[in-house]
Structures are given as structure tokens and as C-alpha cells.
Write a structure and sequence with these properties.
The protein is an alpha+beta fold and 110 residues long. It has 5 helices and 3 strands, in the order ααβααβαβ.
Length: 110
């Protein structure tokens, strides 16, 4: 390589490895699935139960059970935007909410 192209072999290996490392970082940023976890209902439990019923599509009894057994997952594998919207609505109703980012395995080519 050095005689034909004037390139040191070590420099060529770094140039080839550089973009592969950058590709992994890009894949890590694309992980956008979240779980919405209800930590507690707060002081306005009735408003939170009604909101949970509306968000999850379950009956009133099931929504109350979800709120009573907090901390409990309300929605799983939702987009970041949807998770933020749900958190905002629940927080405004008085609930304590946590967003948990799902850690997806990075795909590596063989």
C-alpha cells in the first residue's frame, strides 16, 4: 500500500474502522420506544382513574385497579412523542409518572 498509493497500512485500518463506529452511535440514537409507568395517583385519584380509563381503553374497574396497584405500567412500547403527551396529561391530573426508555439490542452485521 505504501509503495503504490503512499498510504501507511495503519492509517488505512483507522479510516475503515472510523465509519463503522459512527454507524453504531447513530443506531443508538434511533431507539425511541418507551414505557409509561404510573408511580402514584397523587391527590386527585378520581381524575387519574378517569384519565387512565380514557388512555388505555379499559373499563372503569380495570382503570381503578391499575391506579391502585401503582407503580404499574400503563402503556408499553410507545413513541417518545406519545409517551411525553401521556406523561403531561397524567401530571396535570396530579399523578406521578415515569418514562422508561426501552433498551433495544443493537444490530451488528456478522
Amino acid at each position: 500500500l505504501k509503495e503504490e498509493y503512499g498510504i501507511e497500512p495503519a492509517a488505512a485500518a483507522v479510516a475503515v474502522a472510523g465509519p463503522a463506529a459512527g454507524g453504531d452511535a447513530g443506531a443508538a440514537e434511533e431507539q425511541t420506544e418507551f414505557d409509561v409507568i404510573l408511580k402514584s395517583a397523587g391527590s386527585s385519584k378520581l381524575a387519574v382513574v378517569k384519565l387512565v380509563k380514557e388512555m388505555t381503553g379499559v373499563g372503569l374497574k380495570e382503570a381503578k385497579e391499575l391506579v391502585d396497584k401503582a407503580p404499574a405500567p400503563l402503556k408499553e412500547k410507545v413513541t417518545k412523542e406519545e409517551a411525553e403527551a401521556l406523561k403531561t396529561q397524567l401530571s396535570e391530573a396530579g399523578a406521578e409518572v415515569e418514562l422508561k426508555q426501552l433498551l433495544l439490542p443493537l444490530y451488528r452485521e456478522p
